[in-house]
């Protein structure tokens, strides 16, 4: 079946902060450029989830007059706290220098992206929501664009009455800003060997809720980060509680996906966190408004791949620009978009596809590299455990100020860290109380997922037998716990035999399964464009 073809100067895959910043910078530099931005969500921001506290330095570069333009930065961070939790107590610690938020803003990243999209369209950028890029297009050995997925295929793959074939979009440069663990970005790593010589990437799973709390409990501008309970001392992670405007509070838990115990359930750990005496009073008379989850890159400088290849570049969290020390990545993502745009401009007049080598050099001489260099040792050290990791982090931050004469490294992929179930203790989690903690089904409902039941399952098993023959007996079916949306269930068939049921319409596109599956048997692929969560203020 033939596909429609469209030509542009630049194609950008992903309408997050990196992709939109690149589009805006290109349009500012040359209004005649034909720029296309593809977004797999139903609209810009639908799949965007972050804490989020924004360092506005990149936004200042992109739009020095962002306040006059009405950017949705309404709540300036006014108070920082860094707290160690035990089961019943909270010990305030000195706030590490990278985590101080003077001059930053507590925001909804989804709202910021929607505003950036409006600014981009005002400059003439073409934004196509509900179009998932599913295929790389080649001209010789170079990337010449992408194709979008078909719409209107039934579970068996056959077209239905509403079938629409995907579209081929071709360009002189294609920028990949898919975010953490992007589907096409992973293919680029392999095709062009972009990760050669780099540390394995390591990830965290962030689970977030948005609440409305009573006026007397609300402290607009307050930023709280915690470590410790409910996680054990050998599991990396921490929480955040951010007070936005209008009595809104964003809170969440990030769990490093290099955890070892297959019985650990990140969702249940987050529900326990909310019952802590330091947190519960804030929420007990409040109302839960939204829920979501997303993975994030934590590997830092040591895990950043080669950023260019013939015909394109990798931007933002797809490259791994999150600053673990600051617990921020938006400003670096936006800066990478700006640098990508500046770097490819001289190549857009060429008649052949080129590799933009300037982009790597420009990133390495920017404040992105300087910032990531100074915190490069924090995440590897915290992999030693909470107490030695904290001791090292204090030494690195206060004594060496990020310039220790050595670099620590990540050694293994996250899925390799999981121990066999018979070597671990099962974790029994308390039942939800319906006030502070909730069952998973009610949480997934708040993610506002729209996903047609009768479409091709986007969660692929390389070998359908592995979940029952390997994952269940050896690891106690960890996919039923690491997924924060109840996608994977072990059920019995009519003969009483166990089988894996995949509830793909529940998927919030977090990518945890693609990362943590111990046999790497699960492959996350983009579902039909427009499917998935419909986040509003996440």
Short description:
Helix content is 25%, strand content 24%. By secondary structure, it is of the alpha+beta class.
Give a description of the structure.
The structure is a single chain. The protein is α+β, with helices and mostly antiparallel strands and 538 residues long. It has 17 helices and 26 strands. The protein has a seven-stranded mixed sheet. It has a six-stranded mixed sheet with strand order 9-3-2-15-22-21. Helix 1 packs parallel to helix 4 (109-122), helix 1 (17-29) runs parallel beside helix 9 (330-344) and helix 9 runs antiparallel to helix 10. It is globular and about 65 Å long. The two termini are 38 Å apart.
Radius of gyration: 22 Å
- What's the helix count? 17
Low-confidence stretches: none
Q: What level of helicity do the residues show?
A: 25-40%
Overall 3D form: globular
How many strand units? 26
- The order of strands across the largest sheet is 7-6-17-18-19-16-20
Average the pLDDT over all residues and give the rounded result: 96
Largest sheet: 7 strands, mixed
How far the N terminus sits from the C terminus, by CA atoms, comes to 38 Å
- The structural class is alpha+beta
The percent range for strand residues is 15-25%
List keywords for this structure.
globular, 17 helices, 6-stranded mixed sheet, single chain, 7-stranded mixed sheet, 538 residues, alpha+beta
Topology:
Layout (H helix, E strand, L loop, with lengths): L3 E4 L2 E4 L3 H13 L5 E5 L13 E2 L2 H6 L3 H4 L5 E2 L2 E7 L4 E4 L11 E2 L2 H14 L3 E4 L3 E7 L2 E7 L2 E3 L5 E6 L2 E4 L2 E4 L6 H9 L11 E10 L9 E7 L8 E7 L4 E9 L9 H8 L6 H4 L3 E11 L10 E2 L2 E3 L1 H4 L10 H15 L13 H7 L2 H8 L3 H5 L3 H14 L40 H7 L12 E3 L4 H10 L3 H4 L5 E5 L5 E5 L9 H5 L5 E3 L14
Parallel strand pairs: 1-14, 2-3, 2-15, 3-9, 6-17, 15-22
Antiparallel strand pairs: 4-8, 5-8, 6-7, 10-11, 11-14, 12-13, 16-19, 16-20, 17-18, 18-19, 21-22, 23-26, 24-25
